[in-house]
């Protein structure tokens, strides 16, 4: 398999894994002989996504940065074990390249690849680069960034092509349709990220009770995360609001196609998908995100007129009041939703995965068949 494997250091959340899936799809479309391997932890989200797409997995020990502060010896031992296992795996597989997807749990694999002379490409989804990207950028052959603002936050010598955030093919194709105008049965899509967001779940339901008179004409689709689905389903049912609730939705493309308005965290991958779908959004940045990167992501969309921002305050009452004002206004203003959707579409980069693959094939010299079709690039 020498030279025909491509290893993704994709551990972490869906925001790290889905860009890897998008690049893997684009690589296979360009050269079906290249075999993607997803290396990461054994979290349920990683198992589920890899299984759905049929990709080989390689499980490595993983330790979060929180472990470093609580039990530094455990952290160091776990990272060292991950590095040794990753190095042995890479020596055996000899992949054409390793693609780091921004998670700290993937850092030992990326570091091992750089020490072995294997080409390394990093994907940075956020405006503010994460710690793993910042540390590893000096060892990478290229850092593919989603926002031009990110280039100034990385070392000057780093190669930083602005490719956009890779999006799965079925979501990228949403740019080919017109921005949706609300029909008779509008849909509110609530996304807490692939791991859910309990604070958002709770406040949305309490706000829903106060805006029931508006929401009774809407369909609600609510992705809750793995622990909250039964409770949130019961809450919507008690309000007699038509709601489709699940811990996690596999087919998000169809959800975006149905949606008229989104409430979401401000993870970069979700925002890239919302842009391709041309959807207005109410963004609730995760307040404990590293380097406050979700606020920076959200500001790009707000400044473009594509979103409103509601901060998750320590005071839950203030949080609920702010969300109720934003949601109540947009539920009633179809023209505002349409204008915000068009602004979101102007931020879309539907060809990001193909642009990353261009960089990959240039670095590795992998043979490729010509690309016969790509998603239509969004205007703007």
Automatic annotation (TrEMBL):
Residues 7-144 form the Glycosyltransferase family 28 N-terminal domain. Its main location: membrane. Keywords: Cell cycle, Cell division, Cell membrane, Cell shape, Cell wall biogenesis/degradation, Glycosyltransferase, Membrane, Peptidoglycan synthesis, Transferase. It catalyses: di-trans,octa-cis-undecaprenyl diphospho-N-acetyl-alpha-D-muramoyl-L-alanyl-D-glutamyl-meso-2,6-diaminopimeloyl-D-alanyl-D-alanine + UDP-N-acetyl-alpha-D-glucosamine = di-trans,octa-cis-undecaprenyl diphospho-[N-acetyl-alpha-D-glucosaminyl-(1->4)]-N-acetyl-alpha-D-muramoyl-L-alanyl-D-glutamyl-meso-2,6-diaminopimeloyl-D-alanyl-D-alanine + UDP + H(+). The keyword Cell wall biogenesis/degradation applies. It holds the Pfam family Glyco_tran_28_C. Residues 187-355 form the Glycosyl transferase family 28 C-terminal domain. It is a peripheral membrane protein. UDP-N-acetyl-alpha-D-glucosamine binds at residues 13-15, 126, 168, 194, 294. GO terms for cellular component: plasma membrane. Pathway: Cell wall biogenesis; peptidoglycan biosynthesis. GO terms for biological process: carbohydrate metabolic process; cell division; cell wall organization; peptidoglycan biosynthetic process; regulation of cell shape. Cell wall formation. Catalyzes the transfer of a GlcNAc subunit on undecaprenyl-pyrophosphoryl-MurNAc-pentapeptide (lipid intermediate I) to form undecaprenyl-pyrophosphoryl-MurNAc-(pentapeptide)GlcNAc (lipid intermediate II). HAMAP family: MurG (MF_00033). This is UDP-N-acetylglucosamine--N-acetylmuramyl-(pentapeptide) pyrophosphoryl-undecaprenol N-acetylglucosamine transferase. It comes from Maioricimonas rarisocia. The lineage of its organism: Bacteria, Pseudomonadati, Planctomycetota, Planctomycetia, Planctomycetales.
């Amino acid at each position: 398999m020498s030279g025909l494997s491509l290893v993704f250091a994709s551990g972490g959340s869906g925001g790290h894994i889905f860009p890897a899936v998008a690049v893997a799809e684009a690589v296979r479309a360009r050269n079906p002989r290249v075999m993607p391997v997803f290396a990461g932890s054994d979290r349920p989200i990683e198992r589920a996504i890899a299984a759905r797409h049929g990709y080989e997995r390689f499980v490595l020990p993983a330790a979060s940065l929180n472990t470093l502060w609580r039990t530094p010896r455990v952290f160091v031992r776990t990272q060292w074990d991950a590095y040794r296992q990753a190095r042995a795996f890479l020596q055996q597989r000899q992949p054409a390249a390793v693609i780091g997807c921004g998670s700290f749990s993937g850092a030992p694999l990326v570091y091992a690849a750089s020490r072995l002379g294997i080409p390394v490409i990093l994907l940075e989804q956020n405006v503010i680069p994460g710690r793993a990207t910042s540390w590893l950028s000096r060892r990478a052959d290229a850092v593919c960034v989603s926002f031009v603002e990110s280039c100034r936050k990385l070392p000057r010598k780093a190669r930083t092509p602005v490719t956009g955030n890779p999006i799965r093919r079925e979501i990228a194709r949403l740019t080919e349709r017109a921005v949706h105008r609300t029909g008779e049965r509008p849909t509110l899509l609530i996304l807490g990220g692939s791991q859910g967001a309990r604070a958002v779940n709770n406040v949305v339901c309490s706000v829903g009770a106060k805006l029931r008179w508006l929401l009774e004409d809407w369909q609600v689709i609510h992705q809750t995360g793995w622990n909250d689905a039964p409770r949130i389903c019961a809450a919507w049912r008690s309000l007699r609001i038509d709601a489709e609730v699940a811990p996690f939705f596999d087919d998000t493309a169809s959800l975006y196609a149905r949606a008229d308005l989104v409430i979401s965290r401000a993870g970069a991958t979700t925002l890239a998908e919302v842009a391709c779908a041309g959807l207005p959004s109410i963004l609730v940045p995760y307040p404990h995100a590293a380097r406050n990167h979700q606020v920076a992501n959200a500001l790009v969309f707000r400044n473009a007129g594509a979103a409103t921002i509601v901060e998750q305050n320590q005071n839950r009452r203030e949080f609920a009041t702010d969300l109720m004002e934003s949601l109540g206004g947009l539920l009633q203003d179809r023209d505002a939703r349409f204008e915000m959707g068009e602004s979101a579409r102007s931020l879309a980069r539907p060809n990001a995965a193909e642009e990353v693959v261009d960089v990959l094939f240039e670095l590795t010299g992998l043979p490729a068949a010509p690309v016969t079709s790509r998603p239509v690039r969004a205007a703007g």
